[in-house]
Automatic annotation (TrEMBL):
The keyword Iron-sulfur does not apply. PANTHER family: ENERGY-COUPLING FACTOR TRANSPORTER ATP-BINDING PROTEIN ECFA1 (PTHR43553:SF24), HEAVY METAL TRANSPORTER (PTHR43553). It comes from Desulfonema limicola. The keyword ATP-binding applies. One of its GO terms (cellular component) is ATP-binding cassette (ABC) transporter complex. This is Biotin transporter, ATP-binding protein, BioM.
Length: 249
């Protein structure tokens, strides 16, 4: 069952650059999809359409049957996005306040807000951080706060734009572990990354973009070979002919 449907999507920036060129893509409910490509390939622009931060100039984007053009607010509640710069997404003075921001804007009663925040912080293992100031946290912890904010909105689709960017190794492990757990709990995951080595073995599908177009789309094993021609570093294990399951060992 498709939870995301994109049909003939185009987007041109004000400077004339064609960012998206006739993109069509469907994503099934519960699927884990990685979108990869060199800088300027259109990855982030596509993600922002999924979260209704950019509305289609031409074409259709549907989130759980809802047109982003017709109801962007509802689409944004279903598809939550964690930005590459976690600091830009933090608005609360405490971790609790930040995670509560979305539910408060939905005008929920206080008891429901407390329950949503409690559940979200527990899901990302930040319960003990509720009273801390977000900007005092590590990079990995900030990303988890951002994830908690999306979970508190009851988003079915979680969108991550370069979630491992600027994180040290412990931070990468923290964030990746929680993304995998969220996928296993039934969330649909859409993720862009420059570093396929870390996450590809966990994905159901790999989509490669170049110059605003989808140039490859399929099971990671069938798509990954030779991706260097698209400005993406092919993981060492793949170049050595190892299976994806062996990457998990």
């Amino acid at each position: 069952m498709n939870i995301i449907e994109i049909k003939n999507l185009y987007h041109r920036f004000s400077d004339g650059n064609q960012a998206l060129d006739n993109i069509s893509l469907n994503v099934d409910k519960g699927e884990f999809v990685i979108i990869a490509g060199a800088n300027g390939s259109g990855k982030t622009t596509l993600l922002r359409h999924l979260n209704a931060l950019i509305l289609p100039q031409k074409g259709i984007v549907s989130i759980a049957g809802i047109s982003t053009a017709k109801d962007p607010v509802r689409a944004r509640q279903i598809a939550g996005m964690v930005f590459q710069d976690a600091d830009s997404q933090i608005v609360g003075e405490t971790v609790y306040d930040d995670v509560a921001f979305g539910p408060e804007n939905l005008k929920l009663d206080r008891s429901k807000i407390r329950k949503r925040v409690s559940d979200a912080l527990k899901a990302v293992n930040l319960t003990e951080f509720a009273d801390k100031q977000p900007f005092m946290l590590s990079g990995g912890e900030k990303r988890r706060v951002a994830i908690a904010g999306i979970l508190a909105m009851k988003s079915k689709i979680l969108i991550f734009d370069e979630p491992f960017s600027n994180l040290d190794y412990p931070g990468v492990k923290q964030v990746l572990r929680h993304i995998i757990l969220l996928h296993k709990s039934g969330h649909t995951i859409i993720l862009t990354t420059h570093d396929l080595e870390k996450v590809l073995a966990h994905a159901d599908r790999l989509v490669i973009m170049k110059s605003g177009k989808i140039v490859r789309n399929g099971a990671p094993e069938s798509v990954i070979k030779g991706v260097d021609i698209f400005g993406i570093r092919e993981p060492y294990a793949s170049r050595q002919g190892m299976s994806l399951t062996s990457w998990l060992e």
